[in-house]
Amino acid sequence: MESIKDKVIKLWTFMVLFLILFTLLIIRKILSFFPRLFKKVNQFLHKYGPIAKTDYTVEDYADSYTKWSSWKVIWQCVCQSLYENVKQGGKGPNPKVLSQDGATEYNLLDFAKPGRPLVLNFGSCS
Rounded to whole angstroms, how far apart are CA atoms 126 and 120? Predict the structure, then answer.
């Protein structure tokens, strides 16, 4: 089971992340009042930043982390991770999963078999 210390560390990590993102949001709002400076920052990000060599605009990239829905998801993930008990090399979780038609409920480990790894593929195979 996860100790209180580990939970506090996770919470502080989230708070630091939150402050960084909040600072970026404030900087973005301030830059919107200074179009020439915003243009320079835009050029810099396209040349050296995380959107270099992509088709994203700075506005699109900034919107991805400045919208309330993004913050809500981040907060939910952090709150959920505070109650995780999974440790490397330990026993895996056994959440409930639904069949493809949504009619039947299973436990994830119902699909595990001795001597065969259980592989989950989250993505397209096409």
Answer: 16
Q: Please tell me whether the overall predicted TM-score, pTM, comes out greater than 0.70 for this model.
A: no
Average the pLDDT over 6-25 and give the result.
79
Sketch the domain layout of the chain as residue ranges: 4-87
Tokens 């480990």, residue located:
109
Contact (Cβ atoms closer than 8 angstroms) between residue 21 and residue 71: yes
C-alpha span between 51 and 74 (Å, rounded): 21
Where do runs of H (alpha helix) occur along the chain?
4-32, 35-48, 58-66, 68-81
Q: What type of residue sits at position 83?
A: Y
Helix (H, G, I), strand (E, B) or coil at 85: coil
Alpha-carbon 70 to chain mean position:
9
Give the relative orientation of helices 58-66 and 35-48 as an angle to the nearest 10 degrees. Answer: 90
CA gap 67, 119 in Å, rounded: 34
What's the burial of 105, exposed, middle or buried (CB within 10 Å: 0-12/13-18/19+)? exposed
